[in-house]
Specification:
The structure is a single chain. With 163 residues, this protein is an alpha+beta fold. The chain has three helices and nine strands. The protein has a domain of 96 residues: Immunoglobulin-like. Strands 1, 2, 3, 6 and 7 form a five-stranded antiparallel sheet that branches. A four-stranded antiparallel sheet has the order 5-4-8-9, with no helix packed on it.
C-alpha cells in the first residue's frame, strides 16, 4: 500500500512538469502594415523557447489570409545564421485586410492583429501634395494681383493734368 501511494505521489509531481515544457515566443523585426500589395514584407522572426532560449533547427511558417475572399498563402522562414532568428519575404498579392499567423514549428500558432495592405501606389501622398500645390498657386496669384493693383496709375479726370 505504501508503495502504491509513493508511485501515485511521484506521478502527481512528474506529470505536470513533463507537460509544462513546450512553449515558445515569436518576435518580429517589423510589421506588415503599410506594405503595398505585390511588394515584399521582409521580416526576421526570433523564436525563443520559454521566451528565453533561441530555438534552432526549426522552420517557422507565416500564413497570410485575405479577410475578404479567404485566399491564403504560406511562407517558410529560413535560418539567418543568428541563433533562433529566421527570415521570410512575404508578399501580399492584393490590397485589402489580411490576417497573419506564425506556426513556430515547436509548440503553437501565434496570431496577430489583421493589417490593411494598400494597393500599389497607395503610399504616395497625392492628396496632401495636391492641396499644398493648390495653396501655393493661389497665394502666387493673389500676390501678382495685389502688386498689379498697386502699380496702376490713378485714373485721369482732368485733361489739363494729363498734359
Amino acid at each position: 500500500m505504501k508503495r502504491l501511494l509513493l508511485v501515485l505521489a511521484v506521478a502527481a509531481i512528474v506529470a505536470p512538469v513533463a507537460s509544462a515544457g513546450g512553449w515558445a515566443t515569436v518576435g518580429l523585426s517589423s510589421l506588415p502594415s503599410g506594405t503595398p500589395a505585390g511588394k515584399n514584407w521582409s521580416v526576421d522572426l526570433k523564436v525563443l523557447q520559454h521566451g528565453r532560449t533561441p530555438l534552432e533547427g526549426i522552420a517557422p511558417v507565416i500564413t497570410i489570409t485575405n479577410n475578404n475572399d479567404g485566399e491564403s498563402r504560406q511562407f517558410t522562414g529560413t535560418p539567418t545564421g543568428k541563433p533562433g532568428v529566421y527570415h521570410a519575404d512575404v508578399v501580399f498579392p492584393s490590397a485589402g485586410t489580411w490576417s497573419y499567423e506564425i506556426w513556430d514549428d515547436f509548440s503553437q500558432t501565434h496570431t496577430f492583429k489583421p493589417v490593411q495592405i494598400g494597393a500599389p501606389g497607395d503610399s504616395f501622398p497625392y492628396l496632401p501634395l495636391g492641396l499644398a500645390l493648390a495653396l501655393a498657386l493661389g497665394l502666387a496669384a493673389a500676390t501678382v494681383g495685389y502688386r498689379r493693383h498697386d502699380r496702376e496709375p490713378a485714373p485721369v479726370t482732368n485733361l489739363r493734368e494729363a498734359a
